[in-house]
Each structure stands twice: as structure tokens, then as C-alpha cells.
């Protein structure tokens, strides 16, 4: 595990190790070739320079021995001793070169003596190191060995001039006979040394050309190697790039976990198929049942392994022309080109059976799953991509709605499917309404029936949806919101906006404002923190709020409801049990539920004057509620006679059109109905 440096910085050596290694693996052959090419060029330059210096030295050596012979011949002809001095000067060159050669051939070689010898041989000081380098390290070459042999041989002949020179120095006067003898000796020496010198020069020239040819060939070979390497590395790079592009393309179009096509490739293939000839095609959506239990109990590793298992089994069960894709989570889709309706249904049934038969064991626990499958036949009408996806989604939802582990075929004439589609449309509309803040709050007064009742304002806050200048009642959209889990979001919207208005109403602290909560909100662990923060922000006292929950939702989630209500009552909030009496079995739970009010369902109140059973029901609920220490509220009070009857029975509060109609909930009471057209009941 990498540790960060102080300050949270990862060391540079550990930050990009992979990219650095990758760069080195790509670049090292080119770096090596460049280094080799540079070394070869440097070596070639050194050899060429050394050969040039050696050839120059050889030229000076040849000229020196030629001049020495020439000046002695001139002395023999003329007797002029100035030619003797010139002879001595000319002999310094071959003698210096000889001294240098002997110094280099010594063991160990005397570099300083060799340098001095070549310097006396007339070589330029800058050329001498190159001559020494060439002599020391390349004299083993055949051409160099031959040149050195010629050098030694010619040198041995040339040294015969030394006794002649010494004899001339010993005698101040030389006779005619002696001059002729000297001339004869010089002619003999010249006859011997001239071919040796020429052969030395020719071999050195030939050797130079050979070395230059070798160097040229080496440079050409290195250049060819560089070209071959460049082509090879470029091909490797392009191959690697193609592989990366293929991997990226595969990753962009396939699911990392299962290797199946992803939603992008799935939709592209479906769109291509829909745009093609209008033949019989089919589309399936598959949603795994009980997958959440595997994920929750076995962990995500178990869920991932199960998804891979399901993917393999489904892929093995479809046709080779079909495209199976993982659309996300535990959802799969299949595009079935050229598939008759009966074949599509048969395939779907087989896939359902295969999924149900999967025996999945993880850490000793056995899990069973099933699949809800929606099938759409695309030959009956012209579908767009979105229409086809929506139809398959609805069909899959319907399979789940009908009990899961089944196949549902999309049919436009299916009534239940039509209703389900309508609810799905409401989901989009409600999301849009929340985003655009198009909900409106209304309120209806709750009046005191008994003389000793509360004196503060008591109102129930009601929700409306505004669309195109029309107010829609809750009955139009609440069922869809409950079915698709949107009620917690709606409840939060109501609480947030209600508190904002209550905080600006006069006398709100002494009033009671009832807000309806859904059963889903009772299970929402984040609602209590939200409410605390909303109360703190609005500065509305918690005692001003009374939350209404239906008897059905309270009983279905009894323990959760009790814990939720106790927590909110600890904050100071109150509760009312709404629509009470619809399920009379709930009377046994009334003592356990910590509510302050019991709202008698309006279906009993509305007809209590003409239906004795309804009268007795209202009376019984009122008595039981009072015995349990709860106050009662009667709904649907629509005339004075019902109000009088409620007074006779002893109901505490009344609510209905006779007392007040719903009106916009504003910082100040208007007493006026909303200026918008109404749809539905209050």
C-alpha cells in the first residue's frame, strides 16, 4: 500500500511508475540505436582521422628518405657539403618515425617517446595521438601488419645511409673514386628502397580504402538497422494502438462485470434493427427477482458472481443471432431479430425456467432467484427506439406486478397495462412538477364542536397540482406517487413549504396545522433529521404541527409507526389517525398508537342521518376514542343537521364544506377560493 508524503502528496517515483516503464519499453531500442549510431560515427571519424594522419606521416616518411638519398647524391656529384647538412635534416624524419615505432613496439609501449619520435618525424602535434591510437589498437589487422613489414624492410635498407653519412663526416675531403663509390652505393640503396616505399604507400592506401569501405558498410548497416527497427517499432506501436482501440471499443460497448453488451450497444443494435426492413423482430426485458436478498445477505461479491452465472446461462440459451445485454443492476435486455411471436414466447419461457433452476450457493448459503420477463413483438406497429424500450419496460413491470417469475407479452389492449402506463406517465409529470415547483398548498378549517374545545386556528393542509392553469386534486396523482415511491418526496415538499407559510401567519404558535404523511414516509429514516432541520430553520414550534397518518398505513407498519410517532412526539409534534373506522379491526390497536386525534372516516359521517349503522359507527368510534384519551374529528360535515348530530354524540371537531371550503394556504387567510378552475373533490 502506497503511503503519502507529509501533506498528502504521493512521491514522484510512485506517482507514474507504469507510464515511465511503458515509455522506457517503447523508447529504449531507439535510444540504443542512436547511441550505437553516435558511437559508430565517432569511431568512424576517429579511424578516418587516424588514417589520414597515418597517410600524412607516411608521406613525410617517404619524402624524408627520398630527400636523404637525393642530397647525398648531390653531395657526391658536387662535393658541396651544404648537401650533407640537408641530408642530415632529411634523415631526421625516418629516424624519428623509427624511434616512435620502436617505442610503440616495446612492452610496455612508451607513449611519450613515441610522441616525441613522431614529432621529430615532422608530424603535426594534433595528428600524433591519432597515429599512436591507430598503431596501438589496429596493427593486428592484416593490412596494417603488411604495411609495418614494408616499413621495417624499407627502414633497414635506408639505415645503410648512416655509415655513408658517417664516412663523409669523418673525411673532410673526398676523392673522385670515393664519390663514384658513394654514388654506386646510393644507387643500390635507392634501387632497393624505392619499390619498398612504393609498396608501403600502396598497401597503406589500399588498407585505408578497405577500412573506409568497412566503415561505410557499417554505417549503412546501422542505418538499415535503424530503419528496420523503426518500422518494427512503428508496426508494434500501431498493433498495440489497434489493440487499445479494440479494448476501448469493447469497454465502451460491453459490461465490465459480465462481458455482455451494455445499454449503449444494445440500443444501437435495436435502433439499427428498427430502421431496417419491417420483418418480425422481438424485444425482451429481464428483471431478476430476489436479487436484492442475495446482495444484502451475501454481499456485493455474491451479487456479482450471481450476475456472471445468470449471464452465462442466459447467453447459452438464446440463438446465435440474438443480442443479450446487461442494462444495469439486475436488468438484462435481449434483441431477437427475425423472431416470430411464438418463438419469442418460447424463448422467454425457457429463460424464465433456466433462471428459476439456478442453484446458487455462496459461503454455505443457498439462494433461489427467478426472473420477470417482458416481451414486445415489434412487427405489429412501427416503433421508435424510445417507444420500444418503454413498451418492454412496461411489460417487465407488469410481469412483476402480476406476481413475479412470469412472462408478460406487451398488448396495447390490456386494461391493467394501460392503467399501469398511465401511472408511469404520472411519474414523469410528478418529477417535472417537483423540479418546476408546480405544487400548491390549500387548507381547510377544522372547527370546534364542543364549547370547551381549542381556541386557536386549526387547519388541515391539502395538496394540489397545477398544470396548464388547472388545479388537480390529490386523487388524480397520489395513487401513482404511492405506487412508484414518490410520496416521501411529496411529503417533504409539503412540510418545507407549509412551514415557510406557517412561520409568517399571525397567531400560528397557538394554532394546529395538520399535514398528511404517507406510509412510505413512516419508513424513511432520514425524515426525522429533515424535520428537525426544517423546524430549526423556520422557527415554527413543533407543537403547532399535527401529522395525519391513515389507519391502514399505521397498522401495516405498526412497530415502525409507533417508533416514528414517539420520536416526533418527543419533539413536540402531535398526531391524528386519519380515515379511522374503515378497518374496524384496528380498534384493538388504538390504545397502542400514540395519537392525539382520531378522524372518523367521512363515509360514515356523510350518511349517518339516513343510515342507522353509520350513526352507531360514528358514536362507537367517538366513545372508544374518548375512553382511549383521544379527541375526535368528523369529516364530510356537509350540512347543519349533521353538525347538530355530531354535537349530540359528543364529537370534538368537525370538518367539511358546511363549515369551510379549501382555500389557498397563504401567510394571511383570504377566505376566498382559488382563482383557478377546480378538478376533483376536496
TrEMBL record:
Residues 423-676 form the EAL domain. CDD domains: EAL, GGDEF. This is Diguanylate cyclase (GGDEF)-like protein. Residues 279-412 form the GGDEF domain. Keywords: Membrane, Transmembrane, Transmembrane helix. It comes from the Bacteria. GO terms for molecular function: cyclic-guanylate-specific phosphodiesterase activity. PANTHER family: CYCLIC DI-GMP PHOSPHODIESTERASE PDEB, CYCLIC DI-GMP PHOSPHODIESTERASE PDEF. The chain crosses the membrane at residues 21-45. SUPFAM superfamilies: EAL domain-like (SSF141868), Nucleotide cyclase (SSF55073). Pfam families: EAL, GGDEF.
